[in-house]
Amino acid sequence: MDDRRYTLEDVRHSYSAEKAWAELEADLPVYLLYRPLSFYATPLLLRLRVPVLFVTLSSGVLALLMLAIAWQGGSHAYLAVAGLGFAFHVLDCVDGNMARTAGCSSRFGGLLDGVIDRFFWTLLFISLGLLVEHSGGGVLGDRALEFSLVLPILVLLNRQTRDSFALEFSDQTYFRKEIPDRLSLTDKLLIAVVGLEHIYIFAIALGGALGVLDWVLIGVAAHVTLIFIGALVLTLSKAAKG
Hints:
Blueprint: H1 8-14, H2 17-26, H3 28-47, H4 52-72, H5 77-102, H6 107-134, H7 144-169, H8 185-194, H9 200-210, H10 213-241
Helix pairs in contact: 1-3, 1-5, 2-3, 3-5, 4-5, 4-6, 5-6, 5-9, 6-7, 7-10, 9-10
């Protein structure tokens, strides 16, 4: 990382149209909320010469803190979990901003970022299960934690299927690399549904405040299952045609 005094404009300029499309298509809340917020933190960290790897690892620490707080419980633990989840999403954007702006992207950094991303989602689901158990379990009784443990398995299976398809066919599954001239109604629906995973933290905050965390967990499980089944069908269908 050099001594250049990077500006907000430098950071925004590094965010290519292709990267913006990839996030709009697959991670709408990231595109609309977390990425814009991350732009403001990036120049300061670059000027302070904070290593990109340190930022990436720090996001993993936030995920661990999220689990520790959920494990401990407490009347406002759900707010801390949601807040740490929000901070993770922003920080997860910051390290990529830094790498692109300073021209120090690496395969190792990209791999580590992907590992920590999967780590976060696993701990988020477990944390939600713990929060539900601490709140009494609701309609899930004393099985909330076991119920939540199924969700990271479905997410990992989904991503493994997509990765295997990409390796075998040198292509993406239901996402497109090229930027379309216009979005069809199907495109918009897919973007809206897939992107919901990045607002789970808001559902946790609201559900905790209303005392319905059990139904938040059930809703998250329904969404994860829907995405898993839909992705599996679309991927296998495309593979059969290929």
